[in-house]
Amino acid sequence: MTGDALGVVLATTLASGVEFVEALTIVLAMGTTRGWRSTWAGVGAALVALAVITALAGYALQSWLPEALLQLVVGTLLLIFGLQWLRKAILRAAGLKALHDEHDAYRAEVEAARRAGDERRLGLDWFAFVVSFKGVFLEGLEIVFIVITFGLNANSIGLAVLGASIGGVIVLGAGLALHKPLARVPENTIKFAVGLLLSTFGTFWAVEGLGWFAPDDASLRWPGGDAAILVLLAVWCALAWATVRLIAPRAREVA
Question: Could you give the CA distance from residue 34 to residue 112 in angstroms, rounded to a whole number?
Fold first, then answer.
């Protein structure tokens, strides 16, 4: 398996795991408070919508854009997206941003569910259906973005979907077996890793895509091929570590 393929599976597994942790909290709150039938209907509708978006967006991008331009556009978007994840993870690691607490999020969702009215449509508890749909759909959009970008640039949507499915099955299986939010999952550590991987592959593919501006429109090639991914990852890790060390004293002063 190439470096691209390994990166696809690892990044999509970790990213989907993080997003499914947050979606699971919402689903558990709705299911235990409002009933599972309407909750599962909302989850199913969201998954169908996400599958359609993935298929249509992936086909459109692959059909309309030449390879080098696709690498440039998707790599740049992936880099921007990765830097957003990395920024939040760095701020939390340095102590300037509070860690996400799934127990607090679960309690807030349960309280909202208990206060909501009893409106029924199509035989479903409409509040449970809408909240479950919205929670899974919005969290899933980030997974769809990562699946499409990684899958297209690595020429393997299948591997990207496989990685996302593995992450989802692990999180949902554990959460439903325990019947409680997965608050002990090292969420920020995983987000840190995902941010590093997204930034690394975004840089790798965006630079390759700069070949679109060349006369022959051919993608650029990194010295050493896929081995350059490890060098880029090491650079991003060093930058992230240095940033945490730089801003951590400020967090202690604020505290």
Answer: 11
